[in-house]
Amino acid sequence: VVQNCSLSILRVQYGVSLEAATFTLSAYMLSGAVGMFVGGVVAARTQRSDQVVAAAMLAGALLLGLCGLGWLDAKATMVVLALTGFAIGIGGPSRDMMIKRATPAGATGRVYGMVYSGLDVGFAIAPMVFGVWMDQGMYGATLLGAAFVLLLSVGAALAVGARTPSRA
Questions:
Q1: Three-state DSSP class for 164?
Q2: Which end of the chain is more exposed for a tag (fewer CB within 10 A), N or C?
Q3: What tens digit of pLDDT does each residue of 121-151 get?
């Protein structure tokens, strides 16, 4: 949602320039990359990847939810969107470790194929679902919907962690 809709949301709802909206999207992406770097360090130091993923996605959901509620002005929304990228980025390496730990022996290719195909399907469906809300002028609801999806990922991560035997 941030990658596909934030330019329009920032321009229409907050009246920011195309340059400022584009800068915000770039900051989101760069913050995500920095978050992945930090998340790699975190993933290397923890055995509870599910909890790291859940915490990162919860932080991202709360930040997106804050933006979606419309309580912030344009500049604060732009900063919070960038911070959202950082939060979500932190979870990436731990997500990969969580999947690795949950994968039965000999099934790595099938599991990774299913997980990443699922991500691709989600990326393909999201613009159609959230695009309808955007067309209706429901910009806050679009961000709140994205926050809800992140909350679903919190539950999924914790469920995977609960079913995965710990490996020392």
A1: coil
A2: C
A3: 988 898 899 999 999 999 999 999 999 999 9
